[in-house]
Amino acid sequence: KAGVTQTPRYLIKTRGQQVTLSCSPISGHRSVSWYQQTPGQGLQFLFEYFSETQRNKGNFPGRFSGRQFSNSRSEMNVSTLELGDSALYLCASSIQGAAGYTFGSGTRLTVV
Amino acid sequence: TQLLEQSPQFLSIQEGENLTVYCNSSSVFSSLQWYRQEPGEGPVLLVTVVTGGEVKKLKRLTFQFGDARKDSSLHITAAQPGDTGLYLCAGEPTAGSNYKLTFGKGTLLTVNP
Question: Measured between alpha carbons, how far is A7 from B113 in angstroms, rounded to an integer?
């Protein structure tokens, strides 16, 4: 079966711009979680969606937002980009919650 | 806040050597998951341990969950270059509507031929 698909794989943006990242989960998986990965902080939880509802949110500023559609596809948006937002953004899907994720390959975001 | 400490942070060994990676916390988790991540890719789930004291084997990899469900270890026997990668442990919370994993910062393993 198809895995978790994240698009785009690479992105370069300028400070102050906004960006939208996309994630298509494994068919049948209704939970989608987003993580930010940086060398210094590791994987940090952004938010989790289940059946179009955000069930949990990490400690990130309001510039980071997300949503989930009825087909379980999810998007995350970062507005007013800062240099510190440069990271690998990972999406993970599961049947429900945190019981074993399948991760996508990530979107590498570079803010210049 | 539940934290997971992984040690060592970096490990460079020769092919054929054995190694152990540790994942420790002061918090209790309902399960511990181990992932391996290769450069440019997302983490891949290796195993989930659920019961305190549980031991699981995956070929040359042995995973153990501590009796108190606060720590875990990963032992690799006769490491091979293909084992190279970032090993991450992740804890699932015990209670509440907290649908997220807490990740350790990982152990970067390099196995030299």
Answer: 35
Strands B107-112 and B10-14: parallel
Taking the Cβ of residue B99 and every Cβ of chain A, the question of whether any pair is shorter than 8 Å is answered with: yes
Q: In this structure, what token pair is assigned to residue B12? A: 């460079």
Q: What is the pLDDT along chain A (112 residues), one digit of tens a residue?
A: 579 999 999 999 999 999 999 999 999 999 999 999 999 899 999 999 999 999 989 999 999 999 999 999 999 999 999 999 999 999 999 987 666 789 999 999 999 9
How far is the C-alpha of B46 from the C-alpha of B62, rounded, in Å? 11
Contacts of B44 in chain A (CB under 8 A): 103
Contact assessment for residue A52 and residue A69, using Cβ atoms and an 8 Å cutoff = yes
